[in-house]
Amino acid sequence: MSDNNDETMMDGIIPVEPPEQYDEPEFSFDPEVDRFLWVEQARKSFQVSGDGLTVAVLDTGLNLQHVDFKDRIPAQVNFTNENGGDSDDATDGQGHGTNVGGIILAGGPDQGGDHTGIAPFAKIIPIKVLTNSGGGSWNMIRNGLQWVIDNRETHNITVVCMSLGDGSNEVTERSMIGPRREIQQHIQTLTKDKVAVCIAAGNDYFRHNSKQGMSFPAIVRECISVGAVYDADEGPFSYSGGAKAFSSKEGRITPFSQRLHVSTSRANATSIFAPGAPITSSGINGSRGESTQSGTSQATPVVCGLILLMQEFYHRMTGEMPEVALLARLLRFGGVTINDGDDEDDNVEHSNKNYRRVDALSALDAVRRHLQRQRLANMTT
Fold this sequence. Notes:
Structural class: alpha/beta
Number of strands: 14
Helix content: 25-40%
Order of helices and strands: EHHEEHEHEHEEEEEEEHHEEH
Radius of gyration: 19 Å
CATH class: Alpha Beta
Strand content: 15-25%
Largest sheet: 7 strands, parallel
């Protein structure tokens, strides 16, 4: 399944940066994220864990031996030339995909794991579309999405995570050709099939001179695009792209996060914001490794995990899966208003526009209230 021209077809993809790696865990997932979003309370209150659902992660692969993912990898696929070009070996030699996967569903102590993700009983299928240097091609990503389309029913894939992009700053879909057009069409197909495709908004707000926009493929309107906020006051940060936060505080938009407001592009606006700086999760240094990274790449799997919980609750109550547009609407409805510029302390300009960031407990309650209203409406007809 590998593409013989992988290394010569980078065509605009920005290589993802490797996380900081550690040999042993110091944290059980990230306590600030859990507290900030009321994740544990949400799981307990609505009795959800992601059980029975599967996420496909298109990334650098996964540490298949990590205790955080034990017995929850029903399949793996490799579309790169790494690992000897073995299409059945999605081993992660870079770390980004493992960090992302752990944020979504690291199993935690209840399953013999060290870290606890948002949906710790869900399953994961790593689809290696990025090499161990972090790069890849649109052809590999297109092939990865096609694999999900072909196999989603077999594995009950309900969410796709794509923490990748081309570094552009679009406000709407451009005229696309070739693999980009096919990627757009695949996202549209999955959305119609009630599979939520979550994509990182991009980390180049500073580089684009604080102009609104998002990278491709996050700009595709059918996806759930994700920007990043801080989840705690952890001091100042400087990022490789030039963005600097002179101080940080929970709920502040990170200076690197790209963003697109509905007043600029209603159909393509950034769907939601989530914690993404920094996030501690599973690592690639052995079976108990740990890693830490910041980016919209880390905010995106937070949203993926939350969507798995929302889907599980909705399905339990109705026997059906929710439409992706409904999930996006309920994420925002159950979210918290944040303002781009009210208290940010950084080296970028701000729009003073309002966005929404996720809250796990309120998102699940938004699903409950939607179903309650729906039931009452049916009773009166």
